[in-house]
Automatic annotation (TrEMBL):
Protein name in the entry: Aminoacyl-transfer RNA synthetases class-II family profile domain-containing protein
Record carries keyword Cell wall biogenesis/degradation: no
UniProt-listed PROSITE patterns: AA_TRNA_LIGASE_II (PS50862)
Record-linked InterPro entries: Aa-tRNA-synt_II, aa-tRNA-synth_II, aa-tRNA-synth_II/BPL/LPL, GAD-like_sf
Single GO MF descriptor: ATP binding
Species annotation: Paragonimus westermani
Pfam hit, one: tRNA-synt_2
GO biological process entries: aspartyl-tRNA aminoacylation
């Protein structure tokens, strides 16, 4: 960082310099954050503050948006994999991996013929 500026943000229109794929847009808009001497906690704080600032504008357009509360939920990679089986869990739903009971009770109604304990 030069000129005594310890941080800046820019919104940039980007074009992919790679062959087209069905799962990627050839052009997109990105927010570029540059922070001098920042750690992961600093970056998460800045992104949370930024989203809290712009979220009311989103809510004006999309009335079905939820309210944001800080701090945003955080979890380790290990916790995400062990609880959800994914490093990008959808935490809107309370479904977690768990060890089924050995007595045959799984806590929700499913046909008993589909569950076998060996």
């Amino acid at each position: 960082m030069v000129g005594g500026v310890d941080r800046y943000m820019q919104i940039a229109r980007c074009f992919r310099d790679e062959p087209s794929r069905s799962d990627r847009q050839p052009e997109f808009t990105q927010l570029d954050l540059e922070l001098a001497f920042a750690n992961a906690t600093d970056i998460m704080r800045v992104v949370e503050e930024l989203l809290l600032h712009v979220w009311p504008l989103v809510q004006d357009i999309r009335k079905d948006c939820c309210l944001l509360q800080t701090p945003f939920p955080k979890m380790t990679y290990s916790a995400a994999i062990s609880q959800f089986g994914s490093d990008k869990p959808d935490i809107r739903f309370p479904f977690r991996f768990c060890e089924p009971s050995r007595n045959g009770s799984v806590g929700f109604k499913i046909p008993s013929s589909t569950v076998s304990f060996k």
